[in-house]
């Protein structure tokens, strides 16, 4: 099961090849979906710079890597993986290594929640799951997400039953090993919170080794009436890696989604959050933090669609750019004509630490209704010289002062993480990343 | 402790200090008074190493070190502390973290061991009590949303924790009501000792009722036009600066 995805035809060959090699136990349904995704891939092709959404985020480097699609398991360094588990008590744990589910490392014992890996649930013909997969994403927004479905590897399936409220978080950990080098991984997660359910999901992407791979991820989240999810995501891939997240939210009446995304790793990473409000009374909160240093591109696309009245959305993203780091922020809120009493606020703040860093930020608000409260804005700034002097006059050198101020800038977003151990670990990582010399600091 | 000789400095090409001489010994409290725009704050800023000033002549020595040759943080390592007129707000930077990082940076620079978390907590709690700073403010972001009085008390707390050899108070009395002024002054007095020197920069005599100076200097037009004992401050309070300026001009 291998093929190259250097070009569109290569990607198509990969997909076709993959379909030819489908495991025999796979249900008819999934095969159908894969074919639909292949068709979609034919229609869309792979993204290119002439498309507005990909204008600042070139995929050329990614395609040139010629990542191989294969599911050959490597040796699983279990002890090493375990060291990266959350330090706090969790309700359940789902572990994936190089895109493959690790039942031996996972902990699925939990009341009121159905959880496991997506492929098993599909193979068992679980109707809820089969109906939900692709219900938000369709066959794919672009070539890569179509490719994800066409060559779907595996992922988490989490279904929190009606009225079940979890006290501790569910941990979803995806970790890559040396064996991921040169590979294209295609995880896909499905998360369903039934009526009035409540949960926290901590989802992290870590790497044991600094190797190059492509993590091409799709995640669909369905929040049924009155349910509430705190979704805390950390992208800390290898600095050689490519990471793509396509996140789809389906928010039913009075549901509440609180998402926080931190992107620190990868040489190229892009996260798209698509939210189309399905019923009134829902709240969608998205916070984010990105750090781009030398040789890194970080891209966030937010697409929030107020298609119904009486919903609330709030987005607050902050970026720190260092060295020759590049970032793209494209936040779009659409308030449709019928979406009266909408509340939508979007903000993006960027801190530039070097003259060579680059940010392309585009907050967009399109309002077609008249009875709404909306705001949007973006800032690009440098460290405050007065604050720098203040810290230095107390004995901190320039590097120490700069790091402390950067962490201060990031803190508002890090505070969204409820686990102190995780907050501290993120602070530590940011601290280390900023320790690397700043070329030509401002 | 501190020797300033014929210090001259420009701001944006304009001469602000026109030859300052000042000798401060350990254990002494010096007040620098003067009308607005006389160069008081400029002097305080130059001593702490703030950007934006061009020293065109003279020298400043602190216990034998050429102060003007040192970076801002190196001055802090050698015991210089400036209590700011307008303490900067640092949203997201925890007050405790800031204090600990500062103290440890200074300790490391002096080749001393860094302080452990528990000893540090004890130290800060005790000092906060001394300067009557609400402990809740220790857990908040540095100065963010603090009242004027809380900001000044936080400056004095930093001074109490960092224990500088030379503390410079830049208009510390500005914006304080009488109770806050007394608390801040009490905090400062507690820190006065035989091996520490204090320079109090102020426009009004008010603060000097609580922090008693050994020497009072009047700075006007970039020069010290009169030096005297604490009675000079009282005379200034009564008569204003006009008569001194006239005498100096004559």
Describe the structure.
The complex is a heterodimer of chains A (442) and B (250). Chain A has helices at residues 8-20, 28-44, 60-64, 78-82, 118-123, 127-132, 143-150, 385-392, 398-414, 420-435, and strands at residues 92-97, 100-101, 113-117, 156-160, 170-176, 184-185, 188-193, 198-207, 214-223, 228-236, 242-251, 256-263, 268-277, 283-292, 297-306, 312-321, 326-335, 343-352, 358-367, 373-381. Chain A is an alpha/beta fold and 442 residues long. Residues 1-5 of chain A have low confidence and may be disordered. Chain B is of the alpha/beta class and 250 residues long. In chain B, the strands form three sheets. Chain B has a six-stranded mixed β-sheet with strand order 6-9-10-3-11-12, sandwiched between helices. The longest helix of chain B is centred in the middle third of the chain and has 15 residues, at 95-109. Classes of the chains: A alpha/beta (442), B alpha/beta (250). At the A-B interface, α8 and α9 of A face α2, β6, β7 and α3 of B.
Number of E-type strands of chain B: 12
Given the C-alpha coordinates, what overall shape of chain A results? Answer: globular
Shape of chain B: globular
Indicate the mean pLDDT of chain A: 91
Hey, roughly how much beta strand do the residues of chain A contain? 35-45%
What is the chain-wise order of helices and strands of chain A?
Answer: HHHHEEEHHHEEEEEEEEEEEEEEEEEHHH
Describe the structure using short key phrases.
heterodimer, A: 442 residues, alpha/beta, ten-stranded mixed sheet, 10 helices, 20 strands, disordered N terminus, B: 250 residues, four-stranded antiparallel sheet, 8 helices, 28% strand, globular
């Amino acid at each position: 099961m291998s093929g190259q995805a250097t070009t569109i035809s290569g990607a198509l060959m990969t997909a076709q090849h993959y379909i030819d090699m489908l495991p025999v136990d796979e249900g008819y349904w999934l095969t159908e979906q894969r074919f639909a995704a292949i068709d979609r891939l034919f229609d869309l092709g792979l993204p290119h710079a002439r498309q507005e959404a990909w204008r600042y985020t070139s995929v050329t480097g990614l395609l040139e890597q010629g990542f191989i699609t294969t599911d050959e398991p490597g040796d699983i360094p279990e002890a090493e993986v375990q060291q990266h588990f959350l330090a706090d008590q969790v309700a359940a744990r789902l572990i994936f290594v190089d895109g493959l589910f690790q039942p031996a490392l996972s902990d699925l014992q939990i009341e009121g929640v159905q959880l496991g890996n997506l492929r098993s649930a599909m193979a068992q013909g679980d109707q809820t799951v089969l109906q939900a997969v692709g219900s938000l994403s369709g066959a794919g927004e672009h070539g890569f997400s179509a490719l994800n479905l066409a060559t779907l590897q595996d992922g988490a399936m989490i279904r929190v039953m009606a009225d079940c409220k979890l006290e501790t978080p569910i941990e979803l950990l995806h970790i890559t090993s040396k064996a991921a080098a040169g590979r294209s991984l295609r995880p896909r997660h499905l998360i369903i919170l039934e009526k009035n359910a409540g949960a926290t999901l901590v989802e992290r992407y870590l790497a044991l080794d600094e190797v190059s791979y492509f993590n091409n991820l799709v995640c669909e989240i369905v929040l049924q009436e009155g349910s509430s999810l705190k979704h805390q995501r950390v992208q800390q891939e290898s600095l050689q890696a490519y990471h793509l997240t396509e996140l789809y939210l389906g928010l039913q009446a009075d549901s509440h989604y609180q998402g926080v995304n931190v992107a620190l790793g990868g040489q190229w990473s892009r996260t798209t959050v698509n939210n189309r409000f399905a019923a009134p009374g829902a709240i969608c909160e998205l916070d984010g933090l990105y750090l781009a240093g030398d040789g890194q591109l970080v891209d966030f696309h937010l697409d929030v669609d107020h298609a119904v009245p009486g919903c609330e959305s709030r987005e607050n993203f902050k970026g720190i750019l260092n060295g020759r780091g590049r970032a793209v922020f494209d936040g779009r809120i659409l308030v449709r004509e019928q979406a009266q009493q909408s509340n939508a606020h979007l903000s993006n703040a960027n801190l530039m630490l070097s003259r060579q860093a680059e940010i392309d930020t585009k907050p967009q608000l399109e309002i077609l209704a008249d009875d709404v409260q909306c705001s949007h804005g973006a800032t690009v700034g440098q460290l405050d010289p007065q604050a720098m002097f203040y810290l230095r006059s107390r004995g901190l050198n320039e590097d120490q002062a700069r790091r402390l101020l950067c962490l201060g800038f990031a803190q508002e977003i890090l505070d969204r993480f409820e686990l102190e151990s995780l907050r501290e670990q993120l602070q530590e990582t940011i601290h280390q990343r900023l320790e690397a010399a700043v070329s030509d600091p401002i | 402790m501190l020797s300033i000789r014929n210090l001259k400095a420009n701001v944006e090409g304009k001469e602000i200090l026109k030859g300052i001489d000042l000798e401060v010994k350990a254990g002494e409290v010096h007040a620098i008074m003067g009308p607005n725009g006389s160069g008081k704050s400029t002097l305080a800023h130059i001593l702490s190493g703030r950007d934006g000033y061009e020293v065109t002549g003279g020298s400043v020595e602190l216990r034998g070190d050429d102060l003007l040759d040192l970076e801002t943080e190196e001055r802090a390592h050698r015991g210089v502390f400036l209590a700011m007129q307008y303490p900067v707000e640092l949203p997201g930077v925890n007050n405790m973290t800031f204090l600990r990082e500062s103290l440890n940076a200074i300790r490391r620079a002096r080749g001393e061991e860094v302080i452990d978390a528990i000893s540090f907590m004890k130290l800060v709690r005790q000092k906060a009590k001394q300067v009557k700073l609400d402990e809740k403010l220790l857990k908040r972001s540095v100065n963010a949303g603090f009242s004027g009085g809380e900001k000044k008390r936080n400056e004095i707390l930093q001074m109490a924790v960092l224990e500088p050899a030379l503390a410079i108070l830049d208009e510390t009395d500005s914006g304080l009501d009488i109770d806050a002024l007394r608390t801040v002054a009490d905090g400062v007095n507690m820190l006065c000792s035989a091996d520490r020197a204090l320079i109090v920069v102020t426009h009004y005599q008010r603060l000097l009722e609580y922090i008693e100076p050994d020497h009072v200097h009047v700075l006007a037009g970039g020069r010290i036009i009169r030096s005297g004992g604490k009675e000079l401050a009282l005379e200034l309070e009564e008569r204003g600066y006009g008569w001194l300026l006239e005498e100096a001009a004559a």
